[in-house]
Design brief:
- The complex is a heterodimer of chains A (83) and B (185).
- Chain A has 3 helices and no strands.
- In chain B, 79% of the residues lie in helices and 0% in strands.
- The chains are: A mainly alpha (83), B mainly alpha (185).
Chain lengths: 83, 185
Amino acid sequence: MKEEKDLIELLEKELDNALLPIDLEKNYIERINAKLLKHPRISVEWNNLYKIILLICFSFFMGLTILIVLNRIFMRKKHREIV
Amino acid sequence: MNSIEQNYDSIIERAIQGDEEAFSILYKDNVKRIYNYIYYRVGNRIEAEDLTARVFQRALAHITKYKKTSVPFSAWLYRIAHNLVANWHRDNSRRKEVPIEDHTTLKLKVDLPEKQIEKKEEMECLLRAIRKLPDDKQMVLILKYVEDLSNKEIGEVMGKSEGAIKSLYHRTLLDLRNLLDISLE
């Protein structure tokens, strides 16, 4: 039991010597700080912007077409009923 | 709550609201401890620097999700670091990489006296054994020895009680002793 305790104490001493805080270079800290804060966090590429605009236009066109077609169908139905 | 804590809380609040200067203060206050944690987990300076930068990039991107009431800010950063290190280990498990430190130690061995070489080898053996432990046990050792935190503080970081940390630490030492027995055989 005592031997076990001594071993653990020895291990704790070894850990104390092995696990030491490591200093970071000041350069690294500043470089990452600058990188984190000076660069834009979100960038929209022109290619993507064109795609987004194209998608919105296409959706608008499709929506309008569906509305016109539905309107025609209902109008025709109404016209038949009147006739 | 004392004035320092209040001040720190207001810095966190400002950072959450998008104040970059406030985030910079939090970064400078925590970067060393996060780097140390990652360094001892991966055992490579370059990888540790890269992963540390990624922890803060991720923290900056998701800071609005951080809730002050749940965990201390440093604990939140440790969790991000823990996840990134786990991913790093998973990605690197397939290919065996020799850390740069290994090359430098081989080179240095030529000039060092025998006793120093022996001591260095023992230390490397111990660090290798630590890296074989489960994640939570490695974390306890790093926070206790590198960061010099108390069991209570470690508990806050890991989301466990003081008693649970005490018991985890004891089990960690036993595991480590067994691992060293095996590696010495």
